Amino acid sequence: MGTKRKDLDDKRVNVQEHKNDNERNICVVPTEVDGWLEKVRKLEEKAASISDDAGSCFNITRRHKLGRKAFNIIEEINSLIQGNDRINWTDRRIPPAKVNSKKTSTSTPSSHHNDFPSRERTFMEALGQLQPDHKSRIIALCGMGGVGKTTMMENLKKDAEEKNFFNMIVKVAIGEKTDPIVIQQSVADFLGIDLKESDKGARAINLRKSFEAASDGGKKKILVILDDVWEFLDLNDIGLSPLPNHGVGIKILLTSRIRDVCIRMEVDSIFDVETVEDHEAQSFFHQCVQIPEGGDLDFDLHVIGNDIANRCHGLPIAIKTIAGFLKCYRSDKWVWENTLSSLKNKEVEEVVYKIFEISYNHLQNEEIRSTLLLCGVFPEDFDTPREDLVRYGWGLRLFKNVHTIREARNRLNTCIEQLINANLLIQSQLVNHVKMHDLVRAFVLKVCSNSEHASIVGDISKWTEENTSEFCKRISLTCTGISEFPRNLNFPNLSLLKLMHGDESLKFPEHFYEGMKKLQVIAYDVMEYPLLSRSLACSTNLRTLCLHRCLLMYDCYPIGDLLNLEVLSFAYGILRKLPSTVRNLKELKLLDLTGCVDLIIDDGVLKNLINLEELYVKVGSTRGHKKAIRFTDSICIELAELSKNLFALEIEFFDNNALPKNMSFKKLERFKISLGCFLKDDDGPNRHSYENTLMLVIDKCELLDSRMNQLLEKTEVLHLQVNDVNNLGDGLVESLHHQRSSFYNIRVLKICKCDNLRYLFTVCVANDLTKLERLTILECPVLETLVGGERGELGVIKFQALKFLSLGKLPKLMSLCNVGDAIELPQLEELILDGLPNFTSIYPDYYKLTTSSISSDISTMQSFIKKEVVIPKLKKLHVSNMENLKEICPCEFGSSEEVNDSVVNLFLSNPMSLLHHLEELKVEHCGSVEVLFNIDLRCVGKNEEVGSCLRSIQVWDAENLREVWRIKGANDDDLSFNGFQAIESIEIKKCKRFRNVFTPTTTNFDMRALAHLKIKDCGENEKDDEMVNSKQEQEIDVAFSSSLIHTFHNLQDLNIENYKGAEVEVVFEIESPSSRELATTPQSNQQPLLLPYLQYLVVVDMKRTSHVWKCNWNKFLIPQKQQPKGSSSSFHNLTIIYLWRCKSIKYLFSPLMAKLLSNLKEVDIWNCDVIEEVVSNRDDEAEELVASTNTRTILLPHLDELNLRRLPNLKRIGGGSGAKRGGKEISSTTPIHDQSKEEE
């Protein structure tokens, strides 16, 4: 059985790592994975119990029973192994449109929009209309170019994401030329779907179906952003007309310069983004000029600057650009005066052009100007890769006096920084990418229109006979929907040809390249069958050939005739074999075969590339392929010879590839190398980073033979899985007695399955890791501490840059350090702890620490964060599989004066101080945890303001958890406790002994931000004596009484499933308001609204629940005639109700309650055995109020869907008034067989 358990554990480790990689790379994790891992965990516990119960070998009967159990477990293991084989890992990217549901908003107002106070009102009104419950479906930001529409849109998007307005956000840049096919593809990319149809209408139908599926009948909220719309866009083309699900849950935000376009698109609200006011323009200008701290601008220059700002016509982009230029001349008055003179008496378009022209002409040199013009060949609103600019620039000889690709890259990066500082380029959200504002691009294209820089940029329709010109130097075209090129092309001075998105129907003329003899750069991107004919040899000056994501099924041998070629890239192309004629390219400096899956390289090809400087031959693992480029022993020998001159190398050795030997890395400065595994790609915004990376899954002897350890000093990302090392540096480097260790450049470090590792760092190595930001340590069975070594070493150990720490499956770990005086983690924001059995709490109990001399059980106390550990900025804490963990934050029984000064300096006396920065707490599979927060209010003080950022609490499978909060020192006189006012989400799941989130002792809590509450599979029917006798845990028959509801006034969705612990009979009990509720109501003479923001209510598997709402209407409901017209009411935002498998409920709500639910759209009742009516007045005691509803008043006027399934005792729907479904009234006396009913 031991062998089988090991096999299963290996499978578990692989599945867990695959899951972690997919979550990190934003890829889909199969739904069955979590269930499979949970079954493995439970089976391992069962198997371990057999080992513990083995007993005497002479007890034949006992051993026979254990043998039968072992046999059954082996069968279960075999079944789980087979189940693992059936898991379908697609490694498909999660659609970019999906908003991270874990991201929670801040409770403080956003500052995204505060650059210009005059726009505050516009921003807030637009944000208000983006709220899901607002009636507006299409809204627009309208204003002239450069006024800041896109900036405001981005800020609205950020706020909507932070406030969780939407589940998905689709953002598409439209641009001046509206191409429905391109727009459809952009939308499809965000939704994560394939559009295989070629017909525009068929593609639109596919998109519409996708939007309908994504919105799930309006339950999921979707925002579609259409940026920079120049002309009428038929929303039907992108599946949004008419809006799916009658527009429920879907909103459109567009930006446009043209108001008529917004009107034609039937926008509900148009928000004019006006130019900024003069004083704002002046303030923004001086801010952008960046006066040095403590310095001051000459008065005359200040006056001139104000005049320049005023002449920018209130356009932020113009102000920022001209200020960026002038900040280099802060002492040159004549430059400022000349600039002011250039801007006088000019209209706005002229001013904008003149500003860009001034900045362009004053760029330091021609290289910078050429780099800007080169950026113009990329599509509008495109994230331009810097690496493409390097390779194109090299081919065009843009960079003077550079002799290597490395030097060209450094020069290019210098030029880009200059252009960003001049506000002519924008830093992209993608690492190593840049973007260009459309006004700057328009200026660049105008410059490119003259004969000196003549270019054709756009779609292929611009390539006409009239455009054919002997002066044209650059062509960049999108080929979507085009079947052939014009014939008899003649571009004798063409130096760059860039073609994109051509399908298999595109036909090239036979002698396509004969009229392009001066070509220096060819770049094809996503071309099905790019032409590589013999006529290509006519381009004898060709230096760069990039064939990215191209289908290369035809003969590529003509490439071998391009003897002057220096850059060759087949990245992510479908290419089975590298043409053997590549061996002829002796001038080649860069060869890129990234992502060429299962590529075959002939022996002898690489060794002929004697001038090669950079080689990229990695496949990576995120594309779902598991076949690396093949390396024979001969090729490894060639690689060893090549390595002597390589500056850059990306390569993987695994999958039966021979391991490298005798490699030389003296010149290597840029690398990503793996031994024994794939190079794992990051599919996030950092996926294009070029950090030096080593991933080593190998034996120590093989590592030393490969000489990869020579690269450790240059390594920034290190993944280490090496046997036979006792600590980092043990035999991996030649010497650790230098002035600093060999690991000082590491930013990311992952240590996994190092079986002999007892401690990771010495004090010397730890203090040298000044750049380390992320540290992960997994499955090191004998690791006892992170920092160890000789006892008696003194001093503070400080990981000054560490932001992320993950420790998992470390059964022997006892501490973070066992040497030194203290360990400081001043920047740590995220802490993940998994499978650390030796810890009983996360934070220390300082009271016990200070009274340890009289504590009898102090030896059994083991906190992860000891008094010597300083973590002041922790934001996320995830704890799982810590079987002995009993609490997160221990209670402080004494006041702050009782704690000695050395402890106070680390943490304040009360654990509430730990919440100053903590935003997210997640606890999973910690069976001993009884309470999360052990709080003594006597240490906090009455009404003390406790700064808390905690926003999310999630607890899964903590079977002994009784309470979220254990409160001591509670006093009814306390009006409010503000320690948890930022919490937005609470989820408690599979906690058997859990009773209730809110108890009478938590009524003092201010939880104004709580929006999401879910309790599932909690409690147990059997109650032990302790639970019965405990006053605090008396059986509760009401989930949320009116005395508690005010605590979470802003709740948006409530999900209660299989909640047995409290034996809940009533979900909401509503009575007259207490004095506390009235005190918190804005106008105390009015009834407080109960849950006015609640939108979703899910009640499932509540066996004893007899009422969803139980109301004393005489005390609670204001008669309809007394309510102000149009005023809100309790529960008035409730939109969807799910009631499933509730065996004691006879009706859902009364007519009086139905009057409050005026916005209810969907009711779904399923498998409720005793329910007789949906609406019933059987329990209403307020006769006068009930009588007032017995008119023909339509209840539930917005109800669109009523699903009634498996309800054997249902007799009627209405119970005291009319209801409306699908436009039809439902009478209270109509029998059920005459009413709408859907049977399953």
TrEMBL record:
<protein>
    <submittedName>
        <fullName>Uncharacterized protein</fullName>
    </submittedName>
</protein>
